[in-house]
Amino acid sequence: MRSMVKGVLGGKCRPLHRRLRRRSPSPFRGGFWALLLLAFFAAPAVADPYAPRDLSGVKHPDWARSAILYQLNTRQFTAEGTLAAAEKQLPRLKALGVDIIWLMPVQPIGVKNRKGTLGSPYSVRDYYQVNPELGTMADLKAFVRTAHRLGLHVILDWVANHSAWDNPLVASHPEYYERDWKGNFRPTPWWDWSDIIDFDYRQAGLRRYMGAAMLYWVKEADVDGFRADVAAYVPRDFWEDVRTELDRVKPVFMLAEAQMRDLHDRAFDASYAWGWYEAVENIAQGKADVGALFGYYSENESAWPAGAMRMTYVENHDQNAWHGTQFEIFGKALANATVLSVVGEGIPLLYNGVEAGNPKRLAFFERDPIAWRPHPQGDLYKRLFALKHRNPALWNAPWGARMVGVANSAPSKVFSFVRQKGRARVFAAMNFSGEAQAVTFKDRLADGAYRDFEGGGAATIDESTRLVLPPWSYRLFTAE
């Protein structure tokens, strides 16, 4: 504090103070300077630009503490492809164990420069209407009411970066849009997104319009937040301002399609864990060993806010349509990828159809309904979700426990860790190789009494434990 006084008063506090005293003829000069110094020390400190930033994250809604996301592609979710038909399936999703339904964009789709027969739901023609192919505003409200009655929450996919070419804003507010070097409207540069044109967020009017549109859906349809398409392409301060306004209406949940930590500062609860997906994919395809996961989790713990929820998944609409199904990408490692996506750090996402073992890439611009059937993946997810809900160690950030790596005798093949919160504990060991591994554990972090996740039998982990893991298999132990 003394050095701060010196800096503010010129570096020589005492001589300056004496000079000031000599200049003051007042009999109260000593008391005056005492009061002045008292006021200085009591004043708020000037922000230190080199102090560490508080990246503790936004205040998450309480109902997100153990939440699981479910992405619902209304077009493909049922044979009818409507919100009313999807509403009838909400009890099934509740029984599966999901908590937050993410509806892909529900607004009308642009016709000009449309791709395919039905176009992309991310080419929005009107931000205040419901796509008649999906139903009506009344249908959406009924969907949300039923979800809420079941204890579920609903977030809408929101496309803020761009609109359809034939959105009314193009004619009424052409200044809201970016232009190319020739002065024409332009799609997002470098991507093959010819069915949309980009907004210009330097325009205050656009910001007011987009923020008001988002508030409309929260107030009118009672939705519980948004998944923000290409969130990093929109200025961060816009999202931060919108989050503040939305939270004044009700506590909301915000998911960013981005992998950018500062979006968690004051705007988003969750963002994509692209690095996690890439690491597990590379391991599954023989391009990396489990060190790829060490890299991801090290960065997650060291460089990201403790309150940031990183969304883990084996499919979403983009991966399924353009990259590959869960079976194509993960192959024999799918069970490990599935388990790790739920019991590792992060908020898990289930894309519709994954639980039914959907074997195909769903058409993106056409109707291509999911063929629903019982499948072992659905049973596995249901059991994993139940475990996540009842075991506080597995809850989402910041409520759950950190993963702590447990050293084992096959460090490049077997990934092992423990998560513990109070008496709740989970220990996992996963063989990410095509050969059986008999492993021992080199420290005492995982020691204790457990139940085996498969079968529920009692198990003890200590220094004498030797686990035999078949190729591409996992062992999961829980204490609650």
What descriptors fit this protein?
disordered N terminus, TIM Barrel, alpha/beta, 6-stranded antiparallel beta sheet, 8-stranded parallel barrel
Topology:
Layout: H1 2-9, H2 13-23, H3 29-42, E1 69-72, H4 74-77, H5 83-87, H6 90-96, E2 100-103, H7 137-149, E3 153-158, E4 162-164, H8 169-172, E5 196-198, H9 204-221, E6 225-228, H10 236-249, E7 253-256, E8 270-272, H11 274-284, H12 291-303, E9 309-312, H13 317-323, H14 326-330, H15 334-343, E10 347-351, H16 376-390, E11 404-405, E12 414-421, E13 424-431, E14 437-439, E15 448-452, E16 458-461, E17 467-469, E18 474-479
Parallel strand pairs: 1-2, 1-10, 2-3, 3-6, 6-7, 7-8, 8-9, 9-10
Antiparallel strand pairs: 4-5, 11-12, 12-13, 13-18, 14-17, 15-16, 15-18
Major sheet: order of its strands? 1-2-3-6-7-8-9-10
User: What's the CATH architecture of the largest domain?
Assistant: Alpha-Beta Barrel
Helix tally equals 16
Rough outline: elongated
Distance between the termini: 49 Å
Mean pLDDT: 91
Question: How would a crystallographer describe the biggest sheet?
Answer: 8 strands, parallel, barrel
Give the structural class: alpha/beta
- The CATH superfamily label of the largest domain reads Glycosidases
What is the count of distinct domains? 3
The percent range for strand residues is 15-25%
- Poorly predicted ranges: 1-46
Number of beta-strand segments: 18
At CATH level 3, the topology of the largest domain is TIM Barrel
Q: At the first level of CATH, what is the class of the largest domain? A: Alpha Beta
Q: Helical percent range?
A: 25-40%
Tell me the Rg in angstroms.
27 Å
